[in-house]
Each structure stands twice: as C-alpha cells, then as structure tokens.
Amino acid sequence: MLTVHGIEKGVALLERKGATARGASLRLWLSGLVSTYDDRILSIDTTVSTRSGQLGAIAVAAGHSPGMADALIAGTAKVHDLVVVTRNPKHFDPFGIGVMAPGADDPRNSGGSLEQ
Known about the structure:
Rossmann fold; mainly alpha; 3% strand; two-stranded parallel ribbon
C-alpha cells in the first residue's frame, strides 16, 4: 500500500504543478497496475504494524532515525519473508532485513533472491 501511496502522491504533485498530461498518463498506468495486481498488494495490518514498530524501535535504539514509511515497508517484508528491492538500500540497513539494489554492485544484494 505504501508504494501505491507514494506513486499517487507523485502523480498528484505533477498535476498540481501543471504537468497534467504526464500526470494523466501515470495515473492510467497506476490504475492498470492496481487492477492487475490488486490481489497481490500487501496491506498494512496489525501484524505488520506491530513488527514495524518493533523494527523501528530497534533502529532508534541503534542510533538511527528511520521514517515510518521505511519501517512499515521493512515490517511488511519481515512478516511476509520478502526482500525489499530499492534504489535506497541504506534506508533499510537499520532493520536487518534482506535488501536488493537493482543494477548496483552492492554487498546487500546478497540479502535475498527475486525468484519465488
């Protein structure tokens, strides 16, 4: 859900800046994405929220300042035994989860496999 939120926010900001054609194109793409994968979009439920809070507390105790969105993504990955694929792997270092940075020579890429 957080990814959908982030994309929707970006589209709305584009539209507010007057990039209506690009916004409309991205909104159409997002609509298709959601309708195609709706049954695979992971929700933030009580289990994910609890685990995210625990991971956030561990990160803060270790001297990090993770954002709530990153903690929720990390908690979702942990609960569902998934790897986070991101271009910002450093955001997820404090959580001790599997992380992959596409196209990067990054040692964190050993954290998991994209194959199911």
